[in-house]
Amino acid sequence: MATTLDAPRSRQAPTHPGRRFNVEKWGWIYMRVSGAVLVVLIFGHLFVNLVTGDGVRQIDFAFIAGKYANPFWMVYDTLLLWLALIHGSNGMRTIVNDYVVHATANRFTKYALIAATVLLLVLGTMVIWTFDPCPANGLAKNLPDFCKAVR
Amino acid sequence: MVSLRPAPKLPPTSTSPRLSLPKAPAGTVYRGHEGMWSWVLHRITGVGIFFFLLVHIMDTALVRVSPQAYDGVIAEYKNPIMGLGELALVAAIVFHAFNGLRIILIDFWSFGTKHQRGMFWAVIIAWLVVMAGFAPRQLITILEEFPR
Ligand code: HEM
Ligand code: HEM
Q: What pTM value is reported for the model?
């Protein structure tokens, strides 16, 4: 083909020839590695929660208590949380760089992005690892059946 | 955004029958073709899933407030409109996932680069197959929710 294309986004970001760690390169690699793992994790998440049993309407507190009784799902959800949220916010960073041209607005949009990401990573991780299947404030009708034996 | 030089005017050749160069000046081999549409869809679905995930982590966090708080919010989701929303979300993520694999194959495999166009249609077919499996399953749930 005789059509020539400019290399995308060439010479827009400063390059640091002396630096060992190239953020853009590792971001690029991360998108691909996390993407490949996420296909498995997300399809598994959707299959278990939306297809098996009564489908999406089976979901309630007791359903989650049943899942988190098994540490497998705790590790699974932690991986899903970190891989998906960082993948998503790094993708959003690319998009912000494409459309938010004003330098200050660009910087503050990305600060907001980082803040939301860090906050939700902490919140989500805490929720998984401090989960209590039979909390004292729970009403019997919302709790999983196995709480009767505990109380 | 990616800048593309307009395609130079060339006499028609027999070497690339599938790439007939457009007569209008705006045309390129990218714009308006599979490559562009896969990028548009990948971007839109990516943003959509991202904002879903923000809300999703917060509503799941209600399990640490109280079982009633979580079940109360989830009860609000159990209606046909949200059922359709969930179907749309799955449609978006399945496309993003398959097209993401296509992007990875294009980047790491010369076969992928050569056949990116064909692989776009493979993505569409794989998407149709998965959705043909999932949509009926979700539609059963949705129909059961209509108030009788
Ligand atoms: C299901 C598995 C997934 C795969 C295989 C996948 C794959 C990819 C790939 C390969 C890219 C391109 C990166 C680049 O151009 O450098 C990308 C971009 C992106 N992804 Fe994903 N992804 C997945 C899940 C997700 C999830 C869960 C989210 C949201 C939380 C997400 C949000 C995005 C966004 C916002 C972009 C940027 C799009 C753009 O620059 O146009 N992806 N994804
Ligand atoms: C309609 C579709 C979805 C439904 C009904 C759903 C349902 C649930 C439920 C019931 C939980 C609680 C724990 C568990 O079951 O493992 C959960 C947690 C989680 N889901 Fe989903 N999910 C959906 C889609 C997604 C998608 C597309 C993603 C990824 C982009 C995702 C990421 C997560 C994460 C990271 C957690 C753990 C949250 C935390 O840290 O507390 N979910 N989801």
A: 0.86
